[in-house]
Amino acid sequence: MKGMIRHHIGVAALLLLLTACQSDRAGTQVTELPEIKNVPDFTFTNYNGASLAAEDLDGKVYIAYFFFTSCGGPCPVMNSKANVLQAEYADVEDFRIVGFSVDPERDTLERLTRYAERYNAAPGRWYMLRNEKSVVADLASRGFMMGDASVPAMHSTRFALVDRGGVIRGYYDGMDDAKVDELRAALNFLLGRDA
Question: How far apart are alpha carbons 86 and 95 in whole angstroms?
């Protein structure tokens, strides 16, 4: 009997927690976002060998982040969250995800392809890009203002949100579920979707 009562209390507590999480996510709404800065021009190579330039993302709302495939810390968490966002916004034609490898020496196209497959990156919707290390480091620090990417382990764990005009509109900690919920609300605002 005691075991059954504990089970029911546990189930009730879990339902309460899930309800609270859902109401928090649904309750987050954005009505304006700052215009932080324009994303600079860039041209990188995607995991499939195709070139991607900043201008190819004109008219798209996207999240950008920095990662490397051998990262065992924050990168799997961030890529898993990006995977969830990809699924949640699969019906939105102008939403993209753009990941920049901070370890291009090891992150060959073959390795990036396997990594993209691991996270079910949809071709043409989620890019995993590489370029020379100095180019990536400059894009991270001066272009996106997301820290020092010259040392792979020191890369930022934030997602940058970029609007259709190539303007950064916010930064969201990819390791913090509450901040990722704020990112969803900001995405909904930029995409014109109801929260």
Answer: 8
Strand-pair category, 61-67 with 95-101: parallel
pTM: 0.83
Phi, psi of 165 (to 5 degrees): -95, 5
The 10s digit of each residue's pLDDT in 56-87 is 999 999 999 999 999 988 999 999 999 999 99
Ordered by start, the domain boundaries in the chain are 1-30, 33-191
Residue with tokens 């495939």: 69
CA 25 from chain center: how many Å?
A: 17
How do residues 110-169 score in pLDDT, each as one tens digit? 999 999 999 999 999 999 999 999 999 999 999 999 987 777 667 889 999 999 999 999
> Which CATH fold topology does 33-191 show?
Glutaredoxin (3.40.30)
SS3 103: coil
End-to-end CA distance of the chain: 43
Angle at 55 between CA 49 and CA 57, to 5 degrees: 75
Please check whether residue 137 is in contact with residue 151, taking contact to mean a CB–CB distance below 8 angstroms.
Answer: no
Q: 159 near 172, Cβ under 8 Å? A: yes
Q: Which residues contact 125 (CB under 8 A, 6 or more apart)?
A: 86, 95, 96, 97
